[in-house]
Amino acid sequence: MLTRNCLLLFLWILVNEGSGFSSHKPSSPLGRSRSGRERARSSVGSTRNGAAGFQRVKRGWVWNQFFVLEEYMGSDPQYVGKLHTDLDKGDSSVKYTLSGDGAGSIFTIDQTTGDIHALRSLDREEKPYYTLRAQAVDIDTNIPLEPESEFVIKVQDINDNEPKFLEGPYTASVPEMSPVGTYVTQVTATDADDPTYGNSARVVYSILHGQPYFSVDPKTGVIKTALPNMDREVKEEYQVLIQAKDMGGQLGGLAGTTIVNITLSDVNDNPPRFSKSFFHLRVPESSAMGSAVGRIKAHDLDIGRNAEVEYTIVPGDGGAMFDITTNEHNQEGMIILKRPLDYETKKAYTFKVEASNAHLDPRFQSFGAFKDTATVKINVLDVDEPPVFNKPSYVMDVYEDTPAGTIIGAVTAQDLDASSSPVRYSIDWKSDLDSYFDIDPVEGTISTNELLDRENIAQHNISVVATKLNSPVMTSRVAVTVHVLDINEFPPELASPYETFVCENSKVGQVIQIFSAKDQDLPSAGQQFSFRTSKEDVKNKNFTVRDFGNNTAGIVTKRSGFRRRLQEIYFLPVVIEDNGYPPKSSTGTLTIRVCGCELDGSLLTCSAEAIFLPVGLSTGALIAILLCIVILLVIVVLYVGLRRQKKKETLMSSKEDIRDNVIHYDDEGGGEEDTHAFDMGTLRNPKVVKENLYRRDIKPEMQRGPKPPASQDSSDIRDFINQRLKEHDTDNSAPPYDSLATYAYEGNGSVAESLSSIESLAVDFEEDYDYLSDWGPHFKTLAGIFGEQSETHSDSTNTENTH
Prior knowledge:
Shape: flat
Distance between the termini: 180 Å
CATH topology of the domain at 493-602: Immunoglobulin-like
Number of strands: 45
CATH superfamily of the domain at 493-602: Cadherins
CATH class of the domain at 493-602: Mainly Beta
Strand content: 25-35%
Helix content: 10-25%
């Protein structure tokens, strides 16, 4: 079966070979005609009845890539390739069309032959390939004979771009004294040509300038050192020219160059060196301590931190007198004076100075010691100096009230120069404005000019001037401190008024108070006080004084059983004596109060009234009793206030029973504007208005007719109120004080009926108001008012009748 299948496949290939579609070039696409497909289809179909068979669906177009050379410089369009279909019989019945990238503008096709040409020169670096679509149609009907197919035209690269260093020029550094092959830097060149086609983009590096110091790897572009021990101090900067050439460096390749600036960085490979081995300096003896008296320098060929130098003085002659430090700006050694110079004592100093690097490189220690030594000689120059006191300062003591002219001390100065000039002394008047002291100009003895008072000035600070006799401008000064010593003028006294108490339950030998003393004499630091009981109080059986020896003393009980009922206050005289000369003493009296105390000795009370309290009643119980009393007082006050509030209620018992308020007061009202004297209830219900109601707040004098009830219409109510206002204005029987009458609707259901004067009828007869007492407690006040008026009226009537 396998043999038969192979045979059938071979026959099918032969059939297709016979009717093939070939192009003008081997790279042209191939096609198959429809007749060829039909023959193949029939030949394949004849095998379907066999043991095995297959069918292949063929395309009418089989496309390959076209290639066009870039940078074509010919005068005619560049031929690209030819399109042909197996349906084209050569009778010009087939037309070829082209579409896609550059169709018509860059590429054109002959519609009859299918030849494709490039109309202009192409650059692969601008666009490497173009994608187009081709189709064969009937020339008469434009009906497609084959489906549209897509193909690619690639631009074939030529070597038209030189390598370029995009990051150049380069800057690099490498330490000096580096071994051969030390990495410096890497350069990279880029070629725009096609790296997949030929050698146009294969770059090779080489050095054009910079040998024999450096080398470059031809493939990677890595630059390395080529010479050992390159010294920065000899040459610091190098300029290397690197070339990159394509075509693998072959003849005809394009090349590009770049510059690499290489700097040798410094290492500590050079020790410091003095320019000379001996330095000679001259220094005045008057130079101040801490000042720079000279400079020396050791030079180091290195730079930066590798050139930092440290200077030290080798122990010897000048090690104690001088010191040396490094100036960080210029690396000079500054010689500093540590002690004062004296020409008369020593005229010259010689010592050695060593200079060394601060930061050593162990790689170069084999070169030798990285230090150098020089000798320094300093000559001390003689200077005319002022006199010198034998002490830097003087302290003298004198007692106050010392007689004037008493010598309290002396100062001494001398001229140390070779001339040894005499010295004269004086007191600077600015330091002794009041002339308390005087000085002998030759001997230098200081004496008092007047009496000194320590309480006024305890310390005098004066300045003594010493002047050379043969050179008045050469002077020196010294400070003299005079302490005025105190004589014992004031006796000691108690430090403060002590408040002392003794507990009733105190024991024998108990210290109940510690006290101290003070003295106005100075200094207070050295004062010492002693305490004792007075001679008159030696037989005191209650208390005694115990001296603790540290300027304090204590009051000690000599018995127990103190009682406030027997004696409340005790007085204890204390004698206090100081250690001055002559010693002074005084007597102070301490007041001791007997008090009640807790068992632990804490104070309860010292008042005499407290002894009448029950025995054993504690403080907490007393506080509880007082708190209960306060609560009872508050309750009583609140109760009395409520009772008074109830008595002030007169006519009204609740807001629902308000009818009218009868207000009686003895002071004159504020007129119509007085709206705060009382509150009038508002009458709201007009249905309860009844006839034949009398006004009971005054005595009726004239008869008035009944008034109809007010209408609920607002105009009727307004007329009604206006009428009542006129009547009140013309009523001579109204009360002789200001009143406020409020008219509105009156409520109903009142047993006492209306009390309003609006509906009161004027009558000429006297009315009995006793019935008000039957209306209840709310009218009690009103009944009392009118009852008094009726009694007064009856009394006056009886009096008239009697007359």
